[in-house]
Amino acid sequence: MEQKRIYKILQELSFSEYEAKAYLALLAANEPLSGYAAALQSGVPRSRIYDILSNLEKRGDIIASHAAPAQYLPVSPEILLKNRKKRTEKTFAEAQKLLASYETQVQIQDNIWNIKGRTEIFSRIAEVVGRSEKDILLEIWQEDSDEIIPQLRMAAKRGVKITVVAYGDLILDFADVHIHYPLEKNESNGRWFMFSADSKEALAGIVSLPENECRAAWSYHPGLVVPITQMIIHDLYLLEILKEHEEILEQSFGKNLIKLREKFHIDTLFDLQ
Question: Which residues, if any, are the signal sequence (predicted)?
Answer without folding.
Answer: none
